[in-house]
Amino acid sequence: MTNEVLWFLLMLVNFGGILLFYRLMGKTGLYIWTAIATIIANIQVLKTVELFGFVATLGNIVYGTTFLVTDILSENYGKKDARKAVYVGFWSLIVMTVMMQLALYFKPDQSDFAQGALETIFSIMPRIVIASLTAYWLSQLHDIWAYHLWKNKLPQLKFLWVRNNLSTMVSQFIDSFVFCFIAFWGVYELNVFWSILWTTYFFKWIVAAADTPFLYFAKYLHDKNKINELVK
């Protein structure tokens, strides 16, 4: 199975996972998904792959789904609930980083086989986390602000797909630009660095466009009272 096929399969799994979490657990499910996605994305982003002839980081799909989460919350519940998801993702990443850095300081037993692999993944995590937290905070808050701008102050842009894509695609650019410069500047050769930056944004752009039908379906579930809210 090619990387391209796996990439589209991973995208469908992520979108389907969000709808499942939302259907079964309501807003709580979306907050849980945000925590999962921010942690997984910051591990997957360490892996570079070739997609459609370009070098890209792997975590762009699962990270991109956090924008779908905030758009669902913005559309169905409002700005305040959408911002809660940003806080959940922000603090989940901080806690994961602290926990894993402490874990690395434990002296492994002679029977241990995982320490080297854990060091390879998590020893550079602080730089990745600083990049991710900065990019995440700026881009997500912009996404929420822009979504409500298109929805409330520019009624001529009344279509759901318009505000979803306009807010997310600009926010994705902010995210990609800030993250790549903090995380990868000086790590890769310039040609690889620029390839990662632009292809990362391009693939996030595809994810943003592809999530639109799932946003419509999430709105349908909400409007038809088909959501099992764990917290009323």
TrEMBL record:
Please give the chief subcellular localization of this protein.
membrane
Molecular-function GO terms, alphabetical: transmembrane transporter activity
* Secretion signal span: none
Cross-referenced InterPro entries:
YhhQ
Q: One GO CC annotation, please?
A: plasma membrane
Q: Which residues cross the membrane?
A: 6-22, 29-46, 52-73, 85-104, 124-145, 166-187, 193-218
Source domain of life: Bacteria
Q: Which UniProt keywords apply?
A: Cell inner membrane, Cell membrane, Membrane, Transmembrane, Transmembrane helix, Transport
Instruction: Please give, as recorded in its UniProt entry, the membrane topology of this protein.
Output: Multi-pass membrane protein
Q: Where in the cell is it found?
A: Cell inner membrane
Q: What does this protein do?
A: Involved in the import of queuosine (Q) precursors, required for Q precursor salvage.
Q: What is this protein called?
A: Probable queuosine precursor transporter
